[in-house]
Amino acid sequence: MVKGAVRYEPGPAFQESGEQGKLEIPASGSTEFWLIQWPLNHVNASDFNGQEVSLNKHHDDGNLGNLESSSGKSYELVSFAAQQPDATVFIPSGSEMKAVHAY
């Protein structure tokens, strides 16, 4: 453990789920597992059971891909990191300064 680190302990209301894991991810060098967060109560998660999505990880505009639910609704998957940089750094470049956004 890292010096000064505190171990996380869930609150008293936490209840461990007795459900078995629902994902079977094959162990291959080309498979990645992504956790995608979406607005609560705006999307029915069961519409996406069994769906596989190909994501464009090399994007400039933040658009990772598109997804259509089993009910026919289309969703655009976007990267929050592409929308707001973590930091802006100014570096000298010849006679001018350049702003570089770090993600």
TrEMBL record:
<dbReference type="InterPro" id="IPR038823">
    <property type="entry name" value="MED2_plant"/>
</dbReference>
<protein>
    <submittedName>
        <fullName>Uncharacterized protein</fullName>
    </submittedName>
</protein>
<feature type="region of interest" description="Disordered">
    <location>
        <begin position="1"/>
        <end position="21"/>
    </location>
</feature>
